[in-house]
Fold:
Amino acid sequence: MKHVSILVPRGHTSVVNIEGTHQMLNEVNSVLKNMGKPPLFKVELVGISKETSQRNGLFKIDADVLINDVKKTDLIIIPAIHADAKTMMKNNGAFIPWVIKQYKAGAEVASFCIASFFLASTGLLNGKQCATHWSAANDFRNIFPEVNLVDDKIITEEDGIYTSGGAYSFTNLVVYLIEKYAGRDVAVMIAKMFMIDIDRVSQSPFIIFKGQKEHDDEPIKQAQEYIENNFEEKITIDQLASMFALGRRNMERRFKKATANTVTEYIQRVKIEAAKKNLEKGRKNVNEVMYEVGYSDTKAFRTIFKRITGLSPIEYRSKYNRDAIAI
Structure:
């Protein structure tokens, strides 16, 4: 039997992460029982204190056991913790040595959404891939440059450490873990019961690109603003370098450092974000939207759109535009 420790952090934590995981793993035991098989998971809520207030007292969670009572576990689940780094560590720093000790003793560790910040604070993610909520990607990169953040993925797995993307994508990681431990048939059953898209792998269709301006490189900020205000035009790196009195190589280096995108990637993402907004509303066809955002090559537009969003332009419009018409 696999011992699963769902952490109950102090402060503002995702109660949905905690309760949803608890319910899904226990449902696996019910499914196995109906199949005439023994239960697979022993699921416990593990806390620093027995009673933990959540959401400013709106909820209260009672831990089954305290961390010092758990000598060995097989899987640690870390739910999203909504707090700045200082508050998060002040409230929950006592978990860190325990998580590290359990991992070194053979336990696997999974973080949901922005719990990646807490997991990264243990040092266990250094040099490894990691997912987090797409809206927190820039902050994560700035704080943990030694972690390989892949902000388009819903799930990462490396050396017994798992992470999931934003919000309710935690259900995809739970189903993934169920498939690993209980097999595909049980995972499919759970996915159907909880109405989860079992093989969804990307959070790209949900990403809203807002640019990355939380940096102090003023010429690069001005270059970003120029791109965002003139994306319909043909903009070149040489043009931007000349406009802001920078050498081309210096411009490219500073832009990548400040935004985590190359100049070309940034221009593409700004254009595609504008295209997404146009496809979400109104009745323009894909070609009309393509021309409006500055593309004239249909194949190039469709290729870049799918690479950034994970969907074709037609699929994206069908998904998000209620009034979409067939073309």
Notes: The chain has a mean pLDDT of 92. The first helix runs from residue 15 to 34.
